[in-house]
Amino acid sequence: MASDTGTDGTAPVRRGPYAKTAKRRQEIVDAATNVFATRGYHGGSLRDISRQIGLSLTSVVHHFPAKSDLLAAVLENADQTADWFLDRARAQGVKTAIIEVVTHNLDRPELLRLLAIVSSEASDPEHPAHGWFVKRYENLATVLQRLIAHDVEQSRLPSDVDPEQAAHLIIAVWDGLQLQWLLDPSQDMPGRMDRALARLLG
After folding, report:
1. pTM, two decimal places
2. Quick one: fold of 17-77?
3. 34 partner at 20 to 30 Å CA-CA among 42, 151, 190, 200?
4. What is the pLDDT of residues 29-39, one digit of tens each?
């Protein structure tokens, strides 16, 4: 029976078709991100995505049999800050961590545009991403609520802060500031978020 480890006991580096498949899937996801961020999910087609990277439609469908499968991969790829955000928030406080995410996102306008456009479309319960966004907002509110409560316990925030109410208001302000920044990138999104957090959290 073939071994899954090298002679030194370590796992071998995947090469050949494994690496090529992963690279091709990422190329398709990147192209779909651009198309969906420009035209929305309903306005962008698999054919548009295949044209953008010079692939046949058959090749795209081989990796993502349904357009909704590709949308799911695009959304997961766009939402990749959870781990370091949690670590930073626990270590330095939720306000510091939020400002770092906002600043980090200044270099990701296409992904912010994607989330803004598709989340608006997904307000329709029949949209394939409706459940994903409902769960995303539920999870984000829960995480923020816990982090705010932790900061109150650590005396980083005033004891009269209501974690649940503050969490939902922060999400609303965050989304609004991102949309305003997408419309006018000259706006100081981190600065405005910092001032909003000072009002919401003290």
Report:
1. 0.81
2. Arc Repressor Mutant, subunit A (1.10.10)
3. 190
4. 999 999 999 99
Q: Each residue of 93-150: pLDDT tens digit?
A: 999 999 999 999 999 999 999 999 999 999 999 999 999 999 999 999 999 999 999 9
Residue among 142, 118, 141 at smallest CA distance from 131: 118
Contact 70, 82 (CB under 8 A): no
- At 13, the amino acid letter reads V
Level-2 CATH architecture, domain 79-201: Orthogonal Bundle (1.10)
**Residue 44 phi, psi dihedral angles, 5° rounding:** -95, 140
What percent of the chain shows pLDDT beyond 90?
80
Q: Could you tell me which of 16, 28, 110 has the C-alpha nearest to residue 71? A: 28
Task: Locate the domains of the chain by residue range.
Answer: 17-77, 79-201
Dihedral, 19, 23, 24, 29 alpha carbons, nearest 10: 140
Q: Is the pLDDT of residue 3 over 70?
A: no
